[in-house]
Amino acid sequence: MWQWANQQALAAPPWSDERSARGSGVGRYGTLCRVTRKLCLAQEPDADALLASDYLALLFGMLLDQQVPMEKAFKGPKLILDRMGVFDVHRVAEADPEEFAALVSTPPAIHRFPGSMAKRLQALAQFLVEHYDGKVESIWKRGKPDGAEVLKRLTGLPGFGDQKARIFLALLGKQMGIRPSGWREAAGAYGEEGSRRSIADVMDAKSLGEVRAFKKAVKAAAKG
After folding, report:
1. For a designed S-S bond to 109, which of 63, 71, 114, 190 qualifies (C-beta 3.0 to 4.6 A apart)?
2. Which superfamily, per CATH, for 22-188?
3. What would the DSSP string read from start to end of the chain?
4. What angle do CA 126, 20, 35 make, to 5 degrees?
C-alpha cells in the first residue's frame, strides 16, 4: 500500500517543475498562504506550521473536525503530507481510492472513521480541482465576494454543512486575516469576538480547554 505513496513522491518530488506547472503551490505544500501566521489548532508545532502555510491543509482539517478531538482532526493533514511526500490537491483528487484509504487508515489513522473520511477528502479535492482550479483561496478571492457569498461557497463544498462553513469562515477571519465584508455576520455566533465556541477560537492550550468546556456544556444542556 505504501508503494504507491513512495512512487508518487519520487515521480514528482516537492521541488519539481511539474508541481509548479500545475499551479499547486511551492515547496512540499499545496496552496500556500502568502503570510504565514502562527496557529495552534493541532497543538503540535509541525502540524500547525502546515495549517498556517497551506489553505488546503486548513480546509482538510476543518473537514476532519467531527467525531474526534479537534486537535486530532487538525493533525490529519500533516500525516497525509508525511505519507504522500507532498501535499497536493491534484495528487489527492487523482489517487486510487483504495490506496488513498489505506494511506489514511494506517495507524495512527487520521480519523476515527478513516475509510469514510478518505472518500470525503477525495471528493473535496476533486470538487476544488473542478470548480476552483485546485486553488482554495479562490473561494474567497474570485469575484471579490462578501462574507455571505463566501459562506454560500463554503456550504457548497462536499462535506461542509452550514455549521462547518460558518466555523471555517470565522477561522479565516479571526486567525488568518481573511475578512470579506460582513464576515462576522455571515459566521453568526462563531464570528463573535472573544467567544469560545469552536476551533476558530483556539489559540493555545488554554483556549482549547475553554472551547472544549463550552461544547461539553452545550451537549449537557441539550440532554436536559
Report:
1. 114
2. Hypothetical protein; domain 2 (1.10.340.30)
3. -HHHHHHHHHHS-TT-HHHHHTT--STT-SSB-SS-----SSSSHHHHHHHHHBHHHHHHHHHH-SSS-HHHHHHHHHHHHHHHSS--HHHHHHS-HHHHHHHHHSSSPSSSSHHHHHHHHHHHHHHHHHHHTT-TTHHHHTT---HHHHHHHHHTSTT--HHHHHHHHHHHHHHS----TTHHHHHGGGG-TT--SSGGG--SHHHHHHHHHHHHHHHHHHH-
4. 85
Contact assessment for residue 172 and residue 166, using Cβ atoms and an 8 Å cutoff? no
pTM: 0.85
**What is the C-alpha to C-alpha distance for residues 165 and 198, in angstroms, rounded to an integer?**
12
What lies within 8 Å, CB to CB, of 69 at 6+ separation is none
pLDDT, averaged across the chain: 87
What number is the average pLDDT over the span 30-48?
Answer: 78
Tell me how many degrees the CA angle 214-185-182 measures, rounded to the nearest 5. 140
153-192: pLDDT as tens digits:
999 999 999 999 999 999 999 999 999 999 999 999 999 9
Q: What is the mean pLDDT of residues 71-87?
A: 95
Q: Which are the contacts of 125, defined by CB distance < 8 A and separation ≥ 6?
A: 89, 90, 92, 93, 134
Gap between the Cα atoms of 171 and 151, Å rounded? 12
- pLDDT value at 10 more than 60: no
